[in-house]
Amino acid sequence: MTKLYALDLRYYENGRWQDLLAQLPPERRHRALACRFEPDKMRIACAGHLLQRALEKAGIPAEAQIFAENQWGKPYLKDRKDIHFSLSHSGVWAVCAVSDENVGVDVELPRCNMAVAKRFFRPEELEGLDALDRYHQSDALNRLWTAKEAFLKMLGKGLTLPLDSFTVRLGEKAELIQDYTDLPYRLHEYRRGLYRICLCTTDDRPEVELI
Predict the structure, then answer these.
(1) Is 3.30.420.340 the CATH number for 3-210?
(2) What DSSP string describes 134-149?
(3) Taking all residues of the chain, what is their mean pLDDT, rounded to a whole number?
(4) Is the N or the C terminus of the chain less surrounded, counting Cβ atoms within 10 Å?
């Protein structure tokens, strides 16, 4: 079963994020403090807090949350191969998916433009984008970007796989068309204001639980 959690970082503005530091693993704490700008420090600290809380809800206490990375840099729990997770943060939101199978999640503000899309997206995706007015095109670009990021995070190989090596078809729901795995992975989309969240999993769509 897949669970999806979200954290509103605005609660931790004005230095409140610093209260989380003592609870975080040393590596995450050092990453946060090494950032030059406070908003970046806050996002990394809050994302670490969200991951810790999400894994605790899966029955893994903080002291047992020991991480390693695969050859492409994707983190995983060193001693719990039965629990998978994916973490993302952007702006004022952090999201975390936890599952008993491979899973990927991404959250983004609109940042992709047509120049980027023409470099990385498939012709059929570009054709659909070209047919939209500016407002709907911006949201469609964001949907495509988050969907592609979520699938890549699920695979755990990062950008070693080209974004144009699989297709995301946009309609009322985003549809994934790929041949990297025979498993029936699906895309579940969520919206928080201008932010788009996309979850890639074989499970049914979970509701977002706020932490």
Answers:
(1) no
(2) HHHHHHHHHHHHHHHH
(3) 94
(4) N
